[in-house]
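User: My advisor asked me to double-check a structure prediction for PD-(D/E)XK endonuclease-like domain-containing protein before group meeting. I don't want to rely on an old file, so could you generate it fresh from this sequence?
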Amino acid sequence: MPIQEAKPLLSLYDDVKGYDLVLVPDAPLASALNRHLDRPHIGNFATTPRRLAAGRREQVEERTVFLELLHETDLSWKQAAYLGEEIIHCWEYSARPDQILEYGQFDTPAVNQAVQQVRHLDTTSRYLTDYSVEESTDLAVVGYPQFTALERSILPSNYDTIDRFTDQTFDQPPFRVFDTSADIIDGLLATVSEQTADDVAVVLDAGSEFSTLVESGLDAADIPFYGGPGFLDNPDHRAFLQLLRAAFRGSDVRVSDVQPVLQHIGLRVDVDHDQKHLHRLDAPEADWLIEWCDTVVAGEWSFGTALTEYESMLGSDGFEAFHEELETLGLATQTITESRVDNLEFYLQSYEVPIDRENEGVLLADAKSATHVDRPLVFYLGLDDDWTRTPLRRPWVDRETEFERHLAQFQQLLQNGASQYYLVRDSVGGRPVNPCLYFEELFEESFSRFSDLSTERYTTPKSASETSFEASSVPVSPTELDTVSQSSLSTYVNSPRDYFFDRIVDSPDRDYFRKGNLFHDFAEFYVHHPEMVSSAGVDEIVDLMIEEMEPFIRGIDRDVHRTRYRAGVQNIIEFLDENAPETGHVAIENGGGGENTFADYFSKPVGSDITEQWFENEYLGVKGKIDLVESSIRLVDYKSGSKKSAIDVVKNSAIDDISDTPDFQAKLYLTHQRSQQPDEHLEFVFVHFLENVDDIVRGDANVADTITTVEYYPISYLAHIGSLEVYQQLRDEGSNACQKTLSKASYEDYAAVFETAEFPNTRDSDELIESPFGIAFTSTMKEVVGDYKYVEKGCKQAMRDFMRIKNRNYFKDDLDAFEEFVSERLTELNTRRAGDERFPITDLLDEPNYRRLNHRDLLLEGEQ
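Assistant: Sure, here is a fresh prediction for PD-(D/E)XK endonuclease-like domain-containing protein from the sequence you gave:
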């Protein structure tokens, strides 16, 4: 069926103006009709049944019933809330307070007790039950189907019903489609001003994101509004509840979890501490909150005392209403416990505490409760499936009748005002927005999104606040970067925009950073003072590490961390004992230095030319810190993360086919080291000191299982695999068929293939085998050895070894290309730092690896 046209207010008034009494289903419609009354009238003219029976404005009787059951029965808070609402609801639909007892599941002593307590309360439901309109009254009932059984119970035997709809079809405005909710709010704010606010209403789902966005937008624009934030929406009230909740979150609550409330009460705890546990934090700024939590948990405060203390902290005395509510609930003098905080939170989230509101400005109406909105200009926001009211599944509710009631209310709601504007989104996060279910019933067709209906697409112009952020030139010359570290380069390659935010946004200390630094400190200390570790024992070392990590470790995880730290320390000791560093072979321009936790603890100095050595090579544009210079040709780096193979290391540092997990550490450090040790065969060793914890616990660990070594050869890749050394290695140590084939061919036969056939640019062995080089290599070996199956198999094995060599090692041409790659990135960086172009979200990859982003929330979708 199409949307029926609702009668205009003046037409409806003409239908009812001659009656003594007019009953309507909602108070705003009654008020609107009364404003049009153009003749003297004694008593009520247009009103609702509840106002007529009670002689006053409607009150939220569910809260009244809850408080009565809470204080006068032994029901729990949630039982009182549940039974109170069920009794009121059944009473509404049956016109009898005890009707609920007719249904088996509710015929219990608890419900019986609650009914007896509720039926005599001072509620509008009781007044309706006891009231009836006099038979002599000339009565008109507007929108009779919208009345509940309890409201109909007051009607006399004779009255006239007035339909709220005409026989015509409503000329529905088009849906105006915006890209985002923010665009909808911008469009709304561009239309409303302080001068026009009293002429505007906004209908929305009170539980949707639009509610807070509209309220904050109107507030920021100094446009008055009412019908919005409630008691718990007050930031001071919400923060007090969060403070109470924080006290019972235990000793493992992190600073980041309580940062909002800390900021609200004016305590500024540095973002560096965000990942640390509040109760293990050594920061004076947090002492007040820690003391608050300890006092609350110790049971030293009542709710009233805590609220007074909170007032004092804020320097505010505007909590009279909260104090009164605590008195009403009987909590003011009660000692704070976690269950009582749960109850208070449940109450504040379940019931609207009465507050004084300014009844002026933009009217905010809830789509699930409003029907008549008496404003000339009405905006409808969202209109999605959250607007659909779900009839309660109760034995006293006819769901089909209830659906028809809701459908009629929805039709009426859509037609309020002289002008209606339906502001919607067609999709959110790439998924279609489903229109309200009632549209499908009204339009008698199936659709899944608003673009399937009559729509107009809108874009919002930039507001003044947006244009004010345009860049302006600053007479300062940008500082050019001469070098880049491996971590910065890896971040930049993944996402230049993420790298940019790394430079300007503070990030909290992370437990894995602190843990990694502790193990590095220990390794450095052990190189200098192994005798101190031997005398102190590993237990003392681990105790110190646990103490340093205390702010990050949950109490329940302490033993697990102790086991892991002990394993890591043992691995480092064993590795350094077996690989004692040489001295006098240092490829460092200037020494490092810095603090060392273990040096400070044992009062012993550290600092030599072999540990924690900083280099800054401006000629190559690279910098970094080498954990251990074991010798002039062997560098060592300690890793607390999971082990990666040499193949992984080489793959992640590739620049011809960039990995989605870029990591250039080994390649960058070796590039620097070869500039100091040219023509040398170099090694870079990773020690993954936590890799074999399980093996250590079982007692069958081998430190070799923690080590990954990547080698650098000071010749090109082709020269290396075409060399006599590789030929002999494959002949003597290769697979069986490979050994058999090459043992019957000379080195000259082997090397000739490299001179006559072009080697492909690939890292895939199958591509190599099928390439012209692979065909030529196999043909040559067959000519020399013979056309045997083992020859073909041996050639394939040899070529797979070629790829294994390439994928596990670096060669001169690899590092030459990397030097050029670094130079190009530095040029880009300095161009972007100078403001000549933006830092893109991604550049060298199709899209960044989002799991490795540090500032995912700052990167806008669909923008480069």
